C-alpha cells in the first residue's frame, strides 16, 4: 500500500508541474511568432518615375498602406511605391495597431555618357554610348553645331569640319554632354595632289636638323599693309618697292618656328620654309614665275632680332611679305627633307 501511495503522489507532482510550465511555453511561441512580422525594407532610394514593391512579411493579415508625402511618392493598397518627385517620404504599413515604416528617398534620373571629351579628325566618326537610370531607356542625341560634328539617333558622331561642338545625350529630363573637337589631320609627308597645310603645324627633318613650323597668319591687301605699318616696316622704301610692281597685292605670312634639334653648323633660316623663286601652282605640277618679295632682313625677321637666325633649340616668330600677282590666290612649295625627298606645302590666300 505504501508503494502505491508513493506512485500516486509522484504522478500528481508531475501533473501539477506540467500545468504550470505549459502556459509559459505557449507564451514564448506567441512572442516569437510576433517578432517575425516585419516590412521588407526599412529604407530605400528610388529614382523618379520608377516603382518599388514593399511587403509585410510574417503575417497573412492585410496592411493599410499610406505615404507621408504623396507629392514625393505614392503607395497603393498592395504596397507598390511610385516615385513622383525628388525628396523624402515615409511609407507606413498598418496592421491593427502595429505600424511598420520604410523611409523612401526619391532622386532625379541621371544620364551617363561614355566620353565627356574627344578629338577627331575630319572625315572620321565616333560611337558614343549613354545610359540612364530613369523610367524610359530611350536616349535622345543632339549636336550644338551639326556643321562641325553631327550625331545620329544611335550616338554615332561624324566629324565634318574643324571646330568644336557639344554632343548632348538626354533622357527622363536629365542630360550628359561630350565636347567634340574636330581637327584637320596633319599630312606628315604631303604629295602633289594633297600638299601639307602648315596652318596645322608640321615637324620637318631637314638636312641640317629638325624644325617645327606653323603658319599662324595670312593677311593680304590693306590688312597686310596695316600690319606692316604697325610694325614700322611699311616705310618709304617699302612703298616705292610696291609701286614698282603694278597689278600685284601685298600678302603677309607669319610663322611660329622652332629649331627643335640640329642646326649647329648653320642656323635655320626663313628660306628653309619658303623661297619666292621656287614656287609651284596649287597642284605642285608647274613652276610659277619668281614672285617679288619685300626685302626685310632677308625677307624674314624674328620679333627679337637676336633670334633672327635660329640655332638648335631656339624659337621665334618669323614673317615674309610677297608682292603676289592679283590673279594668283594659291601656290605650293617643296621643302627638301633630310633624305632630299620633297615635303610639299600649300598656301591659299
UniProtKB/TrEMBL annotation:
Keyword Transferase: no
Residues making up the signal peptide according to the UniProt record: 1-24
Keyword Zinc carried by entry: no
InterPro entries membership: Big_2 (IPR003343), Ig-like_dom (IPR007110), Invasin/intimin_cell_adhesion (IPR008964), NUP210-like (IPR045197)
SUPFAM superfamilies: Invasin/intimin cell-adhesion fragments (SSF49373)
Gene3D superfamilies with a match to the protein in the record: 2.60.40.1080
Keywords: Signal
Domain Ig-like span(s) in chain numbering: 109-199
PROSITE patterns xref list: IG_LIKE, PROKAR_LIPOPROTEIN
Name listed for the protein in its UniProt record: Ig-like domain-containing protein
Amino acid at each position: 500500500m505504501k508503494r502505491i501511495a508513493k506512485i500516486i503522489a509522484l504522478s500528481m507532482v508531475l501533473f501539477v508541474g506540467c500545468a504550470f510550465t505549459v502556459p509559459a511555453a505557449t507564451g514564448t511561441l506567441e512572442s516569437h511568432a510576433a517578432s517575425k512580422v516585419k516590412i521588407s525594407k526599412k529604407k530605400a532610394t528610388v529614382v523618379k518615375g520608377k516603382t518599388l514593391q514593399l511587403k509585410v512579411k510574417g503575417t497573412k493579415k492585410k496592411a493599410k498602406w499610406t505615404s507621408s508625402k504623396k507629392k514625393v511618392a505614392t503607395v497603393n493598397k498592395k504596397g507598390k511605391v511610385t516615385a513622383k518627385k525628388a525628396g523624402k517620404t515615409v511609407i507606413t504599413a498598418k496592421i491593427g495597431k502595429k505600424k511598420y515604416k520604410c523611409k523612401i528617398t526619391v532622386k532625379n534620373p541621371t544620364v551617363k555618357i561614355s566620353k565627356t571629351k574627344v578629338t577627331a579628325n575630319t572625315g572620321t566618326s565616333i560611337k558614343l554610348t549613354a545610359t540612364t537610370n530613369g523610367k524610359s531607356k530611350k536616349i535622345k542625341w543632339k549636336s550644338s553645331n551639326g556643321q562641325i560634328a553631327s550625331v545620329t539617333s544611335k550616338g554615332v558622331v561624324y566629324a565634318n569640319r574643324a571646330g568644336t561642338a557639344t554632343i548632348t545625350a538626354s533622357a527622363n529630363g536629365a542630360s550628359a554632354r561630350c565636347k567634340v573637337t574636330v581637327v584637320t589631320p596633319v599630312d606628315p609627308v604631303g604629295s602633289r595632289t594633297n600638299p601639307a597645310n602648315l596652318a596645322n603645324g608640321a615637324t620637318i627633318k631637314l638636312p641640317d636638323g629638325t624644325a617645327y613650323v606653323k603658319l599662324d597668319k595670312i593677311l593680304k591687301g590693306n590688312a597686310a599693309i596695316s600690319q606692316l605699318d604697325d610694325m614700322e616696316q611699311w616705310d618709304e622704301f617699302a612703298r616705292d618697292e610696291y609701286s614698282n610692281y603694278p597689278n600685284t597685292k601685298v600678302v603677309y605670312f607669319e610663322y611660329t618656328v622652332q629649331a627643335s634639334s640640329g642646326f649647329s653648323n648653320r642656323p635655320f633660316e626663313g628660306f628653309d620654309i619658303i623661297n619666292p623663286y621656287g614656287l609651284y601652282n596649287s597642284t605642285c605640277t608647274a613652276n610659277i614665275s619668281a614672285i617679288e618679295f619685300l626685302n626685310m632682313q632677308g625677307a624674314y625677321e624674328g620679333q627679337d632680332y637676336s633670334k633672327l637666325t635660329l640655332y638648335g633649340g631656339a624659337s621665334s616668330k618669323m614673317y615674309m611679305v610677297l608682292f603676289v600677282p592679283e590673279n594668283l590666290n594659291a601656290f605650293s612649295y617643296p621643302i627638301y627633307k633630310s633624305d632630299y625627298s620633297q615635303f610639299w606645302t600649300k598656301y591659299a590666300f
